[in-house]
Design goal:
This protein is mostly beta strands. The protein is about 10% helix and about 55% strand.
């Protein structure tokens, strides 16, 4: 129990400094563990405690005992808003934790997970982005064109969804097992920015600076249902359904000296809907030989049923979306009884047009590659080391506010370390 206490204390310290993420749907994120980073496909996995979030019914294929699993990811985020040919960048990294606990005995299992199922982490566009250029255009319009010369602009923001999952699983027979869990999500968003303009009409007119600072908070509950089917020792099928989590964000305006935020979809005391969409995950794993396992995954994000009314930070129509999906494949090779390596690929289609994306963290389609190794350091301890890169597809549109072409670009490189310990 002393080892378990130390493990949970370390996990708590890491979770307190959490900041998100890189892959998944428009709002849903699924990069929760080091095992995921080295495969990118975990919907049918049965080998580690992190599957309480990916294939929760599949935990019945693990050994009896108490498992603790902790992962930490470093994500090097490179985001660019190219506005009328000018690159506006943010390169702030993120650190992402994941904590999983599993107790299995005979035909029953109980589990807990702490993950970051949504959000975009922290960004800092020191020279502004599309949001600030649009704000300057609005200021110019509101002042009748008196202020028309940009001097400086900047914006920073963060977005994170803390997810706490508690559930259980039951083995019906050697082929079928099922699971049921509840997940509580605590979501927070915050943004600060400023723009300064001069007037080209007269040098006697002083500069005008607009400052904004606002935050949004929401929480909600959802359910997770899992089914695992193992027709043979070589073939395993995992199925997971996450219900929609209703999130009504309460807006609080801390600073808005020029009254800009209502034009950008933010009103003090208002509440806007930005539900976390339901998710359907399906995976198939097959062992071709005792050393070679292949897994393929399909994850569907039901965006069109989420019912979004959130239009901040710019006037847009986020309800005009299609369902998104992840489709991937992974190959895992067992070198010996202590070491295995893997290589994974994932294609993500988010289902949203560029004009409706969030400028600070545009939800672009991506092709992601991940790889890594798992090493059994002791009979009770397994270490995971993994890395990868998400290659995002550029997308663009012509702004209805400024008339300029806006192009979104992203690239994320990531590293992950994980440790799993069997306490009993």
């Amino acid at each position: 129990m002393k080892k378990l206490f130390v493990f949970l204390c370390v996990a708590g310290l890491i979770a307190a400094s959490a900041s998100p993420l890189f892959a998944g749907g428009i709002d849903n994120k699924t990069n929760w563990s080091a095992e995921y980073i080295r495969t990118l496909n975990r919907n049918a996995a049965t080998d580690s405690a992190d599957i309480v979030s990916y294939n929760p019914a599949g935990v019945m294929k693990m050994e009896d005992g108490l498992f603790g699993n902790l992962s930490v990811q470093y994500i090097n985020k490179d985001y660019t808003n190219k506005v009328d040919g000018t690159d506006l960048d943010s390169t702030e990294p993120s650190f992402l934790p994941g904590l999983f606990a599993l107790y299995k005995q005979d035909k029953w299992a109980g589990f807990f997970a702490f993950t970051i199922p949504g959000g975009g982490g922290y960004v800092d566009f020191k020279d502004g982005d599309y949001t600030t250029t649009a704000a300057m255009a609005l200021i110019s319009q509101q002042t009748g064109g008196v202020y028309d010369t940009p001097v400086s602009q900047n914006i920073e923001g963060e977005s994170y969804y803390y997810g706490f999952t508690l559930g259980g699983a039951y083995e019906i027979n050697d082929i079928f097992s099922v699971s049921l869990a509840a997940r509580y999500i605590d979501a927070h968003k915050e943004s600060k920015g400023s723009v300064t303009l001069n007037s080209s009409i007269s040098a006697l007119i002083p500069p005008l600076t607009g400052n904004v600072d606002y935050e949004e908070e929401a929480d909600g509950w959802g359910g997770i249902i899992g089914v695992n089917i193992a027709p043979s020792s070589e073939l395993n099928i995992g199925l997971r359904y996450e219900t929609k989590t209703s999130l009504d964000f309460d807006q609080q305006v801390n600073t808005d000296n020029l009254g800009l935020l209502p034009n950008l979809g933010v009103n003090d005391g208002a509440s806007v809907s930005r539900d976390l969409p339901a998710t359907l995950g399906l995976g198939l794993s097959y062992k071709f030989t005792p050393k070679i396992r292949v897994e393929t995954n399909f994850t569907l994000y039901l965006n069109s049923d989420a019912g979004w009314t959130d239009t901040s930070p710019l006037p847009r129509d986020p309800s005009d979306v299609d369902n998104g999906y992840d489709l991937g494949i992974a190959v895992e090779y067992t070198f010996n009884n202590k070491l295995k390596g893997s290589l994974g690929y994932l294609h993500t289609d988010t289902g949203i047009e560029a004009k409706n994306m969030l400028p600070e963290s545009p939800e672009l389609n991506a092709n992601t590659i991940g790889a890594g190794v798992a090493y059994e350091a002791t009979p009770n301890m397994i270490l995971n080391f993994s890395l990868g890169n998400a290659f995002y597809e550029e997308d663009s549109f012509v702004s209805a506010i400024t008339g300029a072409e806006v192009e979104y670009q992203k690239n994320n490189f990531f590293l992950a370390f994980g440790i799993q310990y069997k306490f009993m």
